[in-house]
């Protein structure tokens, strides 16, 4: 079999696509609430001119949540000519609609309006953009009571980010698809690892997009001579590069680390901007532990032992196969019985 | 008083690591259980391991063991396997198994809860490996609370990990 078979099984279990039924239910909720928010925007004089789902479906890096909570990043675009000068205005409007429609914990955050659907495990982030005549998008940034200095329509490029992640022009043409597929699997492995290894509070701050950008920039793909993927090796080498050469982690006092990952597109800001030293330190230490354990697994020849290490890292969806039953294998035949030496012991 | 138990006693009869998996027959496990040096005056018990291996040598099945014989030497802290009966048992089993059941190493008891090999043990195991090239060997220490299985890996003897939950094999 080989360890890749087990990675493939793991990947099949954690990958989430648009057609996944649990996700479809979340999307139904999203569709109905999107309609209500759009109507409210139209009534307020700034109709929605475009909408899209932001995030990991377009980059094929979505995973099944272990919490059972489905996240949707719902982007709504209004025309810049009709958009209110204050970016918080449409966000407040969104909040009103969400609160009247049975969402709980509806809250205006700096880059979005976030809410949990009361009856289902659906969590929706509404992201509001305005679009200039030149098709430039500006993100509505600001909290409910932010003053003029803390709110803005900030240039952003969500489609450019998706394109950047999906870009395979840097790979050799013949292998580009295989390399990109391996990249997507590595991102999914790391996201599931994050969900398993961090507390929910800290894990929520280890942003998926941050992991994705690091993997994309430091990707070390790995295939056998016959062209078969070697995800274990690829992941370990990529993590080595992230830790050793990525420049994402800056040591601070007392063994602590600051993590910085700049967006590769407009507005080029740090994805981990404002994140605590605690987040940076935990992420560094856990990534370092992960790469060491992966290296340990690489050095083993026993598949079950390898799987056991990997299951500790990636959780129960990484399956450890049962030992073969005694008698199910043929017995070796030997030329001699073996010699009992006159053993001594203590 | 604390009740003495052993890993084997608790139903763990499979040990893994370093490219090997050693599975112990139920009857062998109960022999070890009965020979644990729980009493302060008990002598060390010991014997040879016999059984079969998979074709790829990864699996080792310990199917039978010998126990101390009259011409062996035993005390509380040492033993010497001198009785020719051990070799005879190995040879008989080999012939009656179509040459698949062989000598697989030795076992002995230690009067400590979690047994660790002494220098004498390690030296002796090294000799056993040297005179039995071309076959995988295992060495078993039966402590008061735990049974530990060692194999040679990269020039050293290393303990295998008890495989919890494997008690229902066979």
What's this entry about, in short?
Chain A is α+β, with helices and mostly antiparallel strands and 346 residues long.
Please characterize this protein's 3D structure.
The complex is a heterodimer of chains A (about 350) and B (about 170). Chain A has about 350 residues and is α+β, with helices and mostly antiparallel strands. Chain A folds into 2 domains: about 20-155, Beta Polymerase, domain 2, CATH 3.30.460.90; about 160-315, Poly(a)-polymerase, middle domain (Orthogonal Bundle), CATH 1.10.1410. In chain A, about 40% of the residues lie in helices and about 15% in strands. Chain A has 10 helices and 10 strands. In chain A, strands 1, 2, 3, 4, 5, 6 and 7 form a 7-stranded mixed beta sheet that branches. In chain A, strands 8-9 form a two-stranded antiparallel sheet. In chain A, a hairpin with a 4-residue loop joins strand 3 and strand 4. In chain A, helix 5 runs antiparallel to helix 7. The longest helix of chain A is centred in the N-terminal third of the chain and has 23 residues, at about 20-45. The model of chain A has no long low-confidence stretch (mean pLDDT about 90). Chain B is of the alpha+beta class. Chain B has one domain: Cytidine Deaminase, domain 2 (3-Layer(aba) Sandwich). Chain B has 3 helices and 11 strands, in the order E-E-H-E-E-E-E-H-E-H-E-E-E-E. Chain B has helices at about 25-35, 85-95, 120-130; strands at about 15, 20-25, 45-55, 60-65, 75, 80, 100-110, 140, 145-155, 155-160, 160. Chain B has a 9-stranded mixed beta sheet with strand order 10-9-8-7-3-4-2-1-11. Chain B has a two-stranded antiparallel sheet with strand order 5-6. The chains are: A alpha+beta (about 350), B alpha+beta (about 170). Chains A and B meet through strand 10 of A and strand 1, strand 2, strand 3, strand 6 and helix 2 of B.
